[in-house]
Amino acid sequence: MFGYTFYWSIVWQKLPELAAGAALTLQITVLSMILGTAFGAALAIGRQGRGLGLRLSTAWVELARNTPALFQIYMVYFGLGAFGIHLSSYVAMVAALTFNNAGYLAEVFRGGLSSVPKTQMSAARSLGMTVGQSYARVVFPQVFKTVFFPYVNQLNWALLNSSLGMIIGLRELTGATQAAQSESFRTFEFFLVAAAIYFLLSKIVEVSARLIFRRLFRT
Amino acid sequence: MIEIRNVRKSFGNHEVIKGVSLEVKKGEVLCLIGASGSGKSTMLQCINGLEPIQAGEILVDGISVHAKSTDLNLLRQKLGIVFQQYNAFPHLNALENVALAPRIVRKMRPKDALEIAREHLDYVGLSAQAEQYPTSLSGGQQQRLAIARALAMKPDYMLFDEVTSALDPELVGEVLDTIRKLRTNGMTMIMVTHDIAFARESADRVAFFDGGVICEIGDARQVITAPNKERTQQFLQRVLH
Q1: Which end of chain B is more exposed for a tag (fewer CB within 10 A), N or C?
Q2: A196: which residues sit within 8 A by CB, 6+ positions away?
Q3: Number of structural domains in chain A
Q4: How many CB atoms are closer than 10 A to CB A170?
């Protein structure tokens, strides 16, 4: 029963395809995190307010955090398709992952926002800064410092979540691996290598985040 | 000139300012004194529009602070304010703290903003601390930094809200010296203070706030050494003895 023979050379032949998949994975991750950060910040501010803004942002955060990411991707790709809005799998994936990231990041930012004294806002406004400038230049830089590590956590999570892109036909790392292995059925070898690549990407993200943190906040 | 006309201000059902009128002319120094909760600090926050008012009007150089058509961000460039709790920006060093608003609000080039910041740090005696972050500065240094930050916007008026109340006694002097220097340079100032001796020495006029109204206003020496109103006498007796 331990008679499995590893057959690696087929994997090396397909390595360029896996590398292209990994590049797409990174691209989706970074894009959905940048957009997710912008929306997440807006949601966190919205949840401090009242009225329609509060209700909309709360609905977003609740949906994003309490339903599976897989369901969210299906909703954007097939669900919107049912209403005649046909997105490419790439756009659908970035949109769905942005939706998911923004929901989690809103909660991360909310914690950070409550750690910045309200008087910081008054001080910024009293110097003639607009609300937007005050958030961008005074409040959020302080928020980022407090939430930096939960933020990197979400970045890692987004990287791994992007593997769900396979189910809507995206050739990101998992999709590319799936396609490559289906020609040879060397499933074990291919997915081991893919897992190693994911691990490597995650570590690169984590280490660069730490370096950036030190450079940015001089600690 | 700052004109305050019959201003009323409430927090919920609680009215803290119950009809206050006063005028401050260019170059004048006015001190607001009175017990905690008498409405003096709130009055300052209303002057630069940080707090809305329920009735009356505040005019700064003829511009109504609370009118919907007023560009508050533009108006605030005329009105520097310094708070009791310094409120230095902790993620920026001293130089960047001062340079931020000139760069963002006045749209100066970074180099020019830093130049302005250096000048103002020098003015308050913090040249040596330019690269330090607020957490490594003393309370007195942070408060002088806050003054430099406000001055860098080249305001026409300065508002001081109990700026020495949170300081250790031995650090009060350096902040008061900075304010004295401003007075010598002709800055128009409104100061909320509990330091009666400082008010007598540096103010042209003193207004005594009591229960949300001005109980007595007049020449600083007269109000403090020979007040006309009984309430003023009682207050001064309490704080001076």
Answers
A1: C
A2: none
A3: 1
A4: 26
Q: Taking CB atoms and an 8 Å limit, are A126 and B81 in contact across chains?
A: yes
pLDDT tens for each residue of A157-206: 999 999 999 999 999 999 999 988 888 888 888 899 999 999 999 999 88
Asked if the interface predicted TM-score (ipTM) of this complex is over 0.85, the answer is yes
* Helix, strand, coil shares, percent, chain A, to 5: 85, 0, 15
Structural domain including B163 reads 2-240
- What is d(CA B233, CA B79) in angstroms, rounded to the nearest whole number? 32
Handedness of CA B152, B156, B160, B163 (dihedral sign): positive
Contact between A137 and B104 using a beta-carbon 8 Å cutoff: yes
**Global model pTM greater than 0.90:** no
Pairing of strands B188-192, B29-34: parallel
Q: What is the CATH number of the domain that holds A134?
A: 1.10.3720.10
| Contact yes or no for A142 and B104 at CB 8 A | no
A34 within some domain = yes
Residue A88 in contact with partner chain B when CB distance is under 8 A: no
Only one residue has tokens 């006063």, namely B22
A-interface mutation test, from B51, B77, B89, B132, most A Cβ less than 10 A away: B89
Facing residue for B105 by CB, picked from A128, A141, A142 = A128
Q: What is the DSSP letter of A135?
A: I
Q: Where residue B130 sits, what CATH number does that domain have?
A: 3.40.50.300
Report CB contact under 8 Å: B83, A127.
no
